[in-house]
């Protein structure tokens, strides 16, 4: 009987593994045409100001509307895009469309928002691309947007591959006057080094530091200490991954500049975003 069960189970794993392999093959195959077929889409997650929970900044997050597989999250296709050499093209698409959106929003008088920032995530591969900085500069010029409406998020993992060249590039970016955020802060091995070596404006404290906040003192003290550290370094502080009322309540005692998390908003399609933020 046990043997029988074992066989069913291995059959189950073989089936799901098989499906995964087919899915991966499909993603690999279709990725090359995702841009030209207009299947990529930016979702927008609002970051809120603690004082009145109003819209502060926005993070642009990539989705792929696959014709058969539905809406794919970045982790389902970005690693493959990197592996297959599509990351720069996709990354440029993200930057260009973000600039276009900024331009569009700045032109809406009813938004009554004289300055706002949209952040985009960068992959390590983009930081190694010689034409990257020129592309960014050209996009800002083309859409005639203030550079400080644009923020680039890099993770500690992004910086591990090529710290020296990345440093040069980040300085050039910084000189353009865009903001630079260190994303997922605290999950890498050299968080403190990165703060010292690179021109960072914003610290995005990783959601793992929210675990236990609102319930246990140790977690709360750790979060407080990191926020204090960021403030000492005169960084803007974003806390990512606020999911509960208790976490939000604890955060309200700390000098945090922006809240981000499902407790407030998930990443929203453009239509949803407009409906919720500026619709009424
Ligand atoms: P990230 O930059 O740290 O983005 C935040 C991720 O956390 C998003 O996942 C967001 O949906 C999720 N999130 C926000 N609030 C909460 C919360 O309260 N709880 C939980 N559990 N999650 C929350 P998403 O959109 O799946 O993106 C995952 C990662 O993919 C991003 O992490 C970023 O590293 C990468 N990514 C997304 N868009 C791009 C892009 O255009 N280019 C590059 N290179 N990477 C991207
Ligand atoms: Mg990010
Ligand atoms: Mg993050
Ligand atoms: Mg990240």
TrEMBL record:
Signal peptide positions (record): none
A Gene Ontology biological process term: phosphorelay signal transduction system
Keyword Phosphoprotein: yes
Domain of life the protein comes from: Bacteria
Residue ranges constituting the EAL domain according to the UniProt record: 24-280
The keyword Chaperone is annotated on this UniProt entry: no
One GO molecular-function entry: catalytic activity
Keywords linked to the UniProt accession: Phosphoprotein
Protein's recorded name: Diguanylate cyclase
Lineage: Bacteria, Pseudomonadati, Pseudomonadota, Gammaproteobacteria, Alteromonadales
